Amino acid sequence: MANYEVLQHFQPDEHAFVEKVTDWMNQVLDQYAPVVTPFLNPREVAIVSMIIGQDDEIHYEFFGGYPNAENQRCVLAPTYYEIQPADFEITPFNIHYASKFNTIEHRQILGTILGQGVERNRIGDIIQAGEKWQFFVDEKIADFLSFEMDKIGGSKVKLVKINHFDQIIQPKSDWQPMEITLSSLRFDTMISDGFRIPRAKAKLLIEGGAAKLNWAQVQDAKRLLNPGDIASIRGYGRLKYVATQMETKKGKIRVAIEIIKNK
């Protein structure tokens, strides 16, 4: 169990995940064998890194199937163990469909996978290059999906496993990097300055249920954000808090963010 000194650095709704990380670490130490986690979102990746840090007995690596993946699995292992790509237990798929006559979308792909009863943390990124779509899943459910998924939206599809990671497409990132200067790291302040909207409006959007933080609805406009947090605002887009750059002489905070604005 994580102790108070560890938990106090995290939000109350993150404590359950912190406990999971502690359990994974104990499992490695007790069994002296590697442990692979489910797919983690960027905030969870940041939490794992903060908790394990420079532990003398455990080392860890993240991988999501391709460079700069948003959702990644982590392998925690004893320091003697050399982590290999196969340890992440990720299966990538190509989606074959009649692209001349049909179109498919990210939300349809994700919805179809979830509709098979698959938990969200067993699904990695869903990526696109033109009409080509690929996605990543826990290898333990790969055969099941190959058998069950023959339609996405109104399109007939065939899932084909990708056997070599060099066949993964390189998706174009929609994230636009920015630097902004804030009076605080409050949720509403970050949204206001990031999307260039009045702070009062940002506060209303958050408290009205139009905002999610790390894929969970959060209605506390005063909540302080941490590097790795990703917010989505209905009607506006997504914002990723990348890092704190510096504090200005006037006591304001310079931060690096990335944004995807709704078109």
UniProtKB/TrEMBL annotation:
GO molecular function list: RNA binding
Pfam families named in the record: YlmH_1st, YlmH_RBD
Highest taxon of the lineage: Bacteria
CDD domains xref list: S4
Gene3D superfamilies to which the protein is assigned, alphabetical: 3.30.1370.160, 3.30.70.330
Domain Ribosome-associated protein quality control protein P2 N-terminal: 14-78
Keyword terms of this UniProt record: RNA-binding
Domain Ribosome-associated protein quality control protein P2 RNA-binding: 86-163
Protein name: S4 domain-containing protein YlmH
Organism: Aerococcus urinaeequi
